[in-house]
Each structure stands twice: as C-alpha cells, then as structure tokens.
Write a structure and sequence with these properties.
With 452 residues, the protein is α/β, with parallel strands linked by helices. The chain folds into 2 domains: 100 residues, no CATH class; 235 residues, CofD-like domains (Rossmann fold, 3-Layer(aba) Sandwich). It contains 17 helices and 12 strands. α16 links the parallel β8 and β9. α6 packs parallel to α8, α6 crosses α17 and α13 packs parallel to α15. The N and C termini lie far apart (65 Å).
C-alpha cells in the first residue's frame, strides 16, 4: 500500500504551532524527556571517558567509536547533529505510518488540517443559521472555516423541481435545500459533493429525469428510518461526515401561501417567488411542530444568523413556525440578520435595506434582531441577463415601534466581486464572526459596567 506523502511547507508548520491545536504542550514534554535521557547518557559517557582509555591492542574499534582521536567539542557537535537528524526523521516516519490509514490516498489534506478542524474549530461559537436556498449554502461554505459548531436550520416549503415531485409522490418535506446545505458542510471528497448535486438528464415527467442523487438519497434514508424524515436527515449528516449538522425546520410537509397588496392570493413557494408586492405570507397546516434538533440548537446557540436567502420563500417559512420563532426570540444568543446583496425579480423587486427588515418584522414582530449585516460595495461585476439591482442602504426601517431598540447596522464588503447577485462566502463568514465578536464584547462590557 502506498502511504500518502505528507506535504511540508511553512504554512503547515505554522498551523502545527497555532494556539488551540494542543500539539505544542506534548512536544515540549517529549523534548524535556529527550533532554533528560541525553543528560543521563552524557553523564554515563563522561564517567566512561574518565575511567577507560581505549588505546590498547584489540581496542581499535572502541577507540574509533568513542572518537577519542578528536577534541571533545567536535565529538559533541557530531553526536548532536546525528541525534537531531535521527529524531526528526524518525518522528516524521512514525507519523506517516500511524496516520497513513486516516488520510486519503492522494494526501490532499495534511494531517495538521485534520487536527485543526477537530480541535481548534470545535472551540468556535455555537452557530445556528436559519434559511435556505443558495444564500444559506454560500454562508455555510465560509462559516465552517471558523467553527465546526454549526447547525443549519433549513426551510422545507419548496414545491418545485425534484423536491416538489418527491414531496408529491412520497409525502416527505422538501429536500432540495437540505441537500445543498449538506453538500456545503460535508468534509467528504469533492467528488462526493458532485455526486450529491448530480441531476439526471431527461424530461421532468420521466422516472428519474430532473431528480438529483442527493434528493433521492435523502428520500431513501427517510424510508429506511421508518419514514422518519428528521432521523433520515440526521443519518445523512453522519454518513457524509458533515461538519456540524443540517436539520429541517420541521419534519412535516408545509405549504407556503401569500396575499399580495392587490388582494390576490398565491399558493406555493415557486409561485410566490415570482410574485411582486407581497403583503403577507403564512403556512398550512398551522401550528406545525418545529424540529427537536433545531429547537435544541437554538437553545444552546451563541450566535443565530438569519439568512441570507430569498426573503419570503427561504427565510420566513422557518420563522413562521411558532415554536421555532419563540425559541429565537427568547434566546440570549447574538441574533444577526444578513440582507441580500441584490433584489430578486418578483418577491423583493424594488426593496431596499429598510424594506427587507420591515417585512421581516411585520411578520414576526419588532425588537428581536440585534444586528443587521449589509453589503456596501457596489462595483461587483453583473452577470449577463442581470435584471436585479443592488440593495440600497436606506436605514432605519420605518416600521420600528417607538421605544424599540433599532438593530445595530454593520456595513461590510461581502459581495462576490465576480457576481453582483451573490455573497462571497469567505468575506461573508469573516464579517459574521466580526459582528459576533463585537456584539459579544459589547455585552460583556455592559455587564461589567452594571456591576461596577
């Protein structure tokens, strides 16, 4: 068996020495042990040199071995050099032999990265992200580089495409957004992610045409678990080595409804997404129970992130679950809303920043959002056929109730420079962590001031 080649670089060495890995302390212990052994050996050799003179007949080999033909300082230099070389080479080979079975055959992830993920990232803030669609997946790909304590609470109101067909045929909640989030958080090889996202060619009315492998796997796992959808998603997290967990907002299929400003009513997520001037949305059946895993994660969270994603069809459906929103509202975590970088043709056409927050508060109530993160860079490239526009930064929302604290507004460059319609995952995640640290510091400072 060919063992993977360990890549050695300055970045890898710095990662080994980074605080939080838990490696340096044991390296010091090993070094002290080696030092004591070396000292003991030196004392023994010193005594041998004092009492014995290997210069008689038949002692030529011992004479050469003890290097009595060179000065003492040269002997020390030779022994130290040989010892250092053997120690480094032996340690390197030992790590290769011991850790080889745990690394993939191509060695595309250094051992130190595996340890970093398991140890350092495990100390990151307990983060709950609520939403769905492309925006949520984008954030998850970035935030998993800062913490592995992630729970993605995903909407299940989708009724279009492969998810809609499986929902109609099998009676399970929508799985498309869950699949995307699992792919974003999976530590599996890129080929596995490509497999999850593979869509069978052919017409949508064919047996497999239009279905994705990931959707079918989730449906199959749910069936294997006795038609327990939540347990099926839980097992998919485990099988695909997801960093954190992806959970459905509810295990019950729900339907999204909307009333437009002109009084017309629209049913179904796919239809609402195309409808401008939404006045109100709601779910049926009403008072559906939220996922136990989602409620538990919210209760333990340090940071709750709402969005990014389609305002009415990806973010709000989860917050319309009474149990889930009650848990968010009563949470002591930092609650951050991330506004989209661009409007969406249909549901948020013409919306500015204040309109997004006002719509959110109109459906849930004011005073529960601690901070709002919005993009302030408008020079990103606009893709061909771009019909949206950057979200304008009007603030604060007009619907803020008198006496209610206005959320802190944080403006950052979080847009993808190559696509003005999407966030940049790395920039967005870094900005989220900065907001969390700022809010946490402010809360600690306020507590200290009150007790002083």
């Amino acid at each position: 068996m060919n063992l993977p080649r360990l890549r050695v670089s300055g970045a890898v060495v710095r990662r080994w020495l980074q605080p939080g890995i838990g490696f340096k302390r044991w390296l010091v212990v090993v070094f002290v042990g080696e030092l004591l052994l070396a000292l003991a050996g030196a004392l023994l050799l010193r005594q041998v040199y004092r009492e014995y003179e290997f210069s008689g007949p038949g002692q030529t080999a011992l004479y050469l071995l003890t290097m009595q033909f060179v000065p003492y300082w040269v002997r020390g230099l030779i022994v130290a050099t040989a010892g250092t070389a053997l120690f480094v080479y032996g340690s390197w080979r030992s790590v290769r032999v011991l850790m080889g079975p745990f690394l993939n055959s191509e060695g595309d992830q250094p051992l130190v990265e595996v340890i970093y993920q398991k140890r350092f990232l495990a100390r990151g803030p307990k983060t709950v992200v609520i939403g769905g669609g492309t925006g949520l997946s984008t954030l998850l790909r970035g935030i998993k580089e800062h913490t592995s304590n992630i729970t993605a609470v995903v909407t299940v109101a989708d009724d279009g495409g492969s998810s809609g067909r499986l929902r109609e045929e099998l009676g399970i909640p929508a799985v498309g957004d869950i699949r995307n989030c699992i792919a974003a958080l999976a530590d599996s090889e890129p080929l596995m992610t490509e497999l999850l996202q593979y869509r069978f060619p052919g017409e949508a009315d064919a047996s497999l045409g239009g279905h994705t492998i990931g959707n079918l796997l989730l449906a199959a796992m749910s069936s294997i678990q006795g038609d327990d959808f939540e347990e099926g998603v839980r097992q998919m997290n485990r099988v695909l080595a997801v960093r954190g967990q992806v959970v459905p907002a509810t295990g019950t299929p729900v339907t999204l409804h909307a009333r437009l400003i002109d009084g017309a009513e629209v049913t179904g997520q796919s239809e609402i997404a195309k409808s401008p001037k939404v006045d109100r949305i709601w779910l049926t059946p009403e008072n559906v129970s939220a996922s136990d895993d989602a409620l538990r994660a919210i209760d333990e969270a340090d940071l709750i992130v709402i969005g990014p994603g389609s305002l009415y069809t990806s973010i709000m459906p989860s917050l319309l679950l009474p149990e889930l929103f009650a848990a968010v509202r009563s949470s002591t975590a930092v609650r951050l809303y991330i506004c989209n970088v661009a409007t969406q043709l249909g549901e948020t056409q013409g919306y500015d920043l204040a309109d997004h927050v006002s719509a959110l508060e109109r459906h849930t109530g004011p005073g529960w959002i601690d901070a709002v993160l919005a993009n302030n860079q408008f020079a990103a490239k606009r893709p061909g056929g771009y019909v949206a526009e950057p979200v304008k930064l009007r603030w604060p929302p007009a619907t803020v109730v008198s006496g209610t604290a206005i959320p802190r507004l944080v403006l950052e460059d979080v847009v993808d420079p190559e696509n003005a319609h999407h966030h940049d995952s790395a920039r967005l995640a870094a900005a989220v962590i900065r907001v969390f640290e700022l809010e946490s510091f402010g809360r600690r400072h306020a507590r200290i001031s009150r007790t002083a």
